[in-house]
């Protein structure tokens, strides 16, 4: 029977061969995307592991001499630079990954991207922060991405031991901190929910192509004596043959485009091509799972034939979906709303509320989809004024499950990405950099790990001599704290007018460390309360911060940062920064997730378009005789085209609106409960991507319509 099934698939005529090619092509695209998704997960995991290795845990023991290690953060124009200071305590100290030997005092290694940056910018803006000799590039084994800005600076054990976060390590590579599970779970959740489901829907739709036609053929075989087992075997062989060929082509497509995929900064940074790898388990899952899934789908699609050879001709209208399908959706929203009233104090407790709530909504959307499609179709039928609209609405209302099946993936993908984009946009808006041109955008402040007793006059003189610097203010520790008082003080005569003024009669004011309240903008009208410190006592207080006001130009900011880092080379674990710099890594990561969400939107919409195209082609093939009879009765071809277009486009557009709306609602509930933020609407780019993606889907559907005229000619209506 296997040989007979293969002969039917390959030599069963032009129709069978065409079906085989279409299914193989569809499976190839789906398998290629599935492989790219799995490789992307591996690449993200590798990238996070390498990033974590820059912050090793302290180790001791063994026979190796310990290596002093200190990791600090620096910035250049809003981009994070990771600085690692190392010092070997003996000849047997371990060597950091990616370099041939540990640099000595006055030497440093820099990543290729940082070396380009050093060469392209004036020394007083960047290179002066790393005095010494560049002894070579850092290899990719130590870099999270080709774009990573990393410098490994050599020093003496005494100097490195005094740096912030200094620790001794006796081995390299086995003391990398564990990855945060929540981050990895988020990655897998977003990818699985947003991309894998549409891929599987696409593959399943493709393997069911011309299912009705095959049902009729297999029913005929049953009538001449074939057993259900033989029919199932033939169907499985036909489907598996196309799926095997498609899977093989999918592997070829993946390796052909792997380098191109690696250059797309899905997480905000590019990947190394070698990081886009497949584990043996991934290969086995795709190589065996896709053909097995195709065979299973073929077996399921023939259940009517297995029951009875006459089952194909005894089709009845399926039961309409009921309103109880909305229950999971309502429960999910209720769970998220409950978090507004009660938020568990621990992260595990919060996860126990938010995760089930989101999963309930996702499940509810899939279950409620057919019911929503049926309600929408009935409304469309009542308001229909043209034959095409009425026919399309009646068909959707007759079998809403079939109409929703091909677009279920897009509904889930748009919901997941809407939640992600809504949350990310809101967090970046609340924690991101200060608005361009504002006073805050040009304000650079410091965070000393050990407060110096005073600031040399030369430092303030050098800062004020930089073109674009408007002020340099020393902020000191406030000896009186508590009761919502700011912990820092400044002389009223030193307070720049751009940051406010002192209360009437005050000589010393209580201010924030950066002269701006946390997450608030600078204001010249703000009035700072008087401090209980006198001007005479002020000079004896330790220095907490140096606040530099600039015109926000890159040159002024980076020169000021360089002057401060050179003056205090060991007093920072985070370099002097402007609002948003400190969160730049977090914000860049969030922007990377946002970009990943956009990619998922585009990919899922493209997959939905392909699924719809396959579904439309399959539907036309199955209904070509009724359409042919309609044409013989006088219905014009353009009316039939309109019917097919409405059947596909209306549910897709309605589903997109519902999914995005539910996504924003879930994001608002999450943000309000977790962070007390109000949802910030995504920018025009998000809507543009969705609209362009939907337009591409409609274009794909339109490309299948010319097939309608060719397959619904008068000869099709002839009785056989």
Strand and helix layout:
Elements: H1 2-11, H2 14-52, E1 67-76, E2 79-88, E3 107-110, H3 112-120, E4 133-137, E5 150-154, H4 157-161, E6 167-169, H5 181-207, H6 211-223, H7 228-262, H8 280-301, H9 303-307, H10 327-341, H11 347-382, H12 387-398, H13 400-405, H14 408-431, E7 443-444, H15 457-464, E8 469-477, E9 488-491, E10 501-502, E11 508-511, E12 527-528, H16 535-538, E13 543-550, H17 554-567, H18 584-622, H19 624-632, H20 637-675, H21 684-704, H22 706-711
Parallel strand pairs: 2-5, 3-4, 10-12
Antiparallel strand pairs: 1-2, 1-6, 3-5, 7-13, 8-9, 8-13, 9-11
Helix pairs in contact: 1-2, 1-7, 2-5, 2-7, 2-8, 5-14, 5-18, 7-8, 10-11, 10-20, 11-12, 11-14, 11-20, 12-20, 14-18, 14-20, 18-21, 20-21
- Given the structure, what is the number of helices? 22
Could you estimate the helical fraction of the residues in percent?
55-70%
Give the end-to-end Cα distance, rounded to a whole number of Å. 27 Å
How confident overall, as mean pLDDT?
Answer: 79
Q: What's the number of extended β-strand segments?
A: 13
Q: So what's the overall shape? A: elongated
Proportion of residues in β-strands: 5-15%
Subcellular location: Cell membrane
Pfam family, one: FtsX
Protein name: FtsX-like permease family protein
InterPro entries: ABC3_permease_C, Membrane_comp_ABC_pdt
